[in-house]
Specification:
two-stranded antiparallel ribbon
């Protein structure tokens, strides 16, 4: 009877050692996972900070032209352009009408 209980004790000790070994492996795996997650979080934070810094981005949108703060900027671009139309009559052409309005005075007014 003592021999059977000795075998059981040895088996129990063997199982306990195996259980302790498995627990240590799991703890090591969890620790490695935590370290990997911490590295990933740190890298993501660094990337987020880099993206937030406009100097580290590829585009140099901070560069300004010397005339960016002028009042009368881009006026020619916003003014509506009149479409040139072709009229075969020289007297009724747009050029002729513009010329008359600019240089010909009628009743003391330029038309």
């Amino acid at each position: 009877a003592s021999d059977a209980s000795g075998d059981e004790d040895e088996d129990t000790e063997e199982l306990m050692r195996e259980l302790a070994k498995i627990k240590k492996e799991r703890e090591a795996e969890e620790e490695a996972e935590k370290e990997r997650q911490a590295k990933l979080d740190e890298r993501m934070k660094r990337d987020e900070v880099m993206r937030g810094n406009p100097l580290m981005q590829g585009d140099l949108s901070l560069k300004r032209k010397w005339d960016d703060d002028t009042v009368f900027k881009n006026q020619a671009r916003t003014a509506p352009k009149q479409k040139q139309r072709f009229i075969n009559d020289a007297v009724r052409s747009d050029f002729h009408k513009k010329f008359l309005n600019k240089y010909v005075w009628v009743d003391g007014l330029a038309h």
